């Protein structure tokens, strides 16, 4: 049986597959293998270990790029469609009040989105997730696996 993280894999251009060895985001897919949700054409999707915000995940480009304008138009459109696809899957899975999309890159200069399902009942609502410190919420191995399976199924269903 194949690795469940590659349920949704297709071929992006070979030139797009270039990682940068010193970049933590380029290494994240390998280093956080237990948090892998799915590999898409242009991006990897990884659950954030801190689940204070249920379903919080990262969508990171496979290629080491820092800005949307660094991508050719077809690749840029593909990346944005994948971010949209994951956001829609999170919305179907968790029914949040709002999905927050964070594309910063100041701390880690590699294009990656923080997709954060937000609920009007969460303690930081309606402030940005960075506005106040919070206690990190870690799940059991089984809880991570269950959450990943739910999101993966929702992403798969969005084909």
Explained architecture:
The structure is a single chain. The protein is built from 3 helices and 5 strands. It is α+β, with helices and mostly antiparallel strands. It has one domain: HIT-like (HIT family, subunit A), CATH 3.30.428.10. It has a 5-stranded antiparallel beta sheet with strand order 1-2-3-5-4, with helices on both faces. β1 (36-39) and β2 (43-47) form a beta hairpin. α2 packs across α3. The protein starts with 23 loop residues before the first helix and ends with a helix. Mean pLDDT is 89; it is low at 1-11.
Strand order of the largest sheet: 1-2-3-5-4
Q: How would you name the CATH homologous superfamily?
A: HIT-like
Tell me the number of helical segments per DSSP (H or I, 4 or more residues long). 3
* Total separate domains: 1
- Strand percentage lies at 15-25%
What is the succession of H and E elements?
A: HEEEHEEH
Average of pLDDT: 89
Please report the total strand number as a whole number: 5
């Amino acid at each position: 049986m194949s690795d469940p993280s590659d349920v949704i894999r297709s071929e992006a251009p070979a030139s797009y597959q270039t990682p940068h060895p010193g970049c933590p985001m380029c290494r994240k897919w390998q280093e956080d293998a237990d948090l892998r949700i799915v590999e898409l054409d242009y991006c990897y999707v990884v659950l954030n270990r801190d689940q204070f915000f249920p379903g919080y995940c990262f969508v990171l480009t496979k290629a080491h790029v820092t800005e949307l304008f660094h991508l050719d138009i077809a690749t840029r459109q593909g990346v944005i469609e994948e971010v949209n696809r994951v956001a829609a899957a999170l919305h179907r899975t968790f029914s949040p009040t709002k999905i927050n999309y964070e594309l910063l890159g100041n701390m880690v200069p590699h294009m990656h989105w923080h997709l954060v399902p937000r609920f009007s009942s969460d303690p930081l609502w309606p402030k940005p997730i960075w506005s106040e410190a919070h206690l990190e919420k870690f799940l059991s191995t089984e809880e991570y696996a269950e959450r990943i399976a739910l999101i993966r199924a929702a992403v798969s269903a969005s084909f």
